[in-house]
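Page 42, continued from yesterday. The earlier attempt failed because a stray header line got pasted into the input along with the sequence. Redoing it now with the clean sequence only.
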Amino acid sequence: MVKITDVARHAGVSPSTVSYALSGKRPISEETRQRVEASIHALGYRPHAGARALATSRSNVLALVVPLRAGIHVPVVMQFAVSVVTTARGHDHDVLLLTQEEGEEGLRRVADTALVDALIVMDVQLADPRLPLLRSLDRPSVLIGFPASSEGLTCIDLDFKAAGEACVEHLTRLGHRVVALVGSPPEVYVRGTAFAQRVVQGFTAAADRGRLASSVHPCEASPAAARAVAEQLLREQPALTGIVVHNEAILEPLIDAFEELGLRVPGDLSVTAICPDELAESLRVPVTSIALPSGEVGARAVELLVKKLGGKAVPEATLLAPRMTERGSTAPRAVA
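This time it went through. Structure tokens are written below.
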């Protein structure tokens, strides 16, 4: 293992000079700093994390707070996590993943130690009980998601309300007059999870503007639940010709259920979804979808946090516009 004394010997300076170059606690000449940095690079020296934290009052660790609650689709959560970790490493930060449902107590426990410099918080609720603490912490934070009031916070996410609207508007342009939203599991709505509620708001607003008959159906993440919802929709809305799906786990089982019940996609039923592109592209009938930009959102959340750590101003709200890709699951409504 390369030590600080090895770097000092290679650069022709004292160990204390190397320490000053790393911490910035005392001024050194530019020429000396460059020589030290060149030796660090040549030898592959990595300062001990604990020593670096003592020298800089920074741990160079970010906390990613993502409680794995019921109804969360873990594969999508992991896409966000991978993006956060990859981007953080590019800024010489590691990531501490916090998955327990500890609420405010868990945040305070982490914030009251020197474990992390800043926090990224996911699974945000409209009336999230963690918000007062996040507003009062002396550590910066970024929320992936928008609570009902985001004043005094830094938030980023896909514009889920606009995404719900865009799906309905696409179906409206194709002539569909009876539509339904098959959404997240019921517990997600009971918690007031922000992104799910925003989709409902956008779906309902667009359907009302277009004077469409519409309904919203939470759905458990299982093939049996998908089949039950399909049967319910055909029983209650026999004229149904367009659906929006915001539940990655049941997208394929739902399409299969409708086809088993006699509806062809897209001949009899047009399907749109809010989901990752790779899922929409991979199905037997490729699905017209709004992309879920987990990679971009995770990366930009880290960039915002790094700027805040550097004392730079950042926007309070960053909403990513929805991007729809038309595929084979939507078509003009068949007229009898």
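Notes: The first strand starts at residue 61 and ends at 65.
Reminder to self: strip header lines before submitting.
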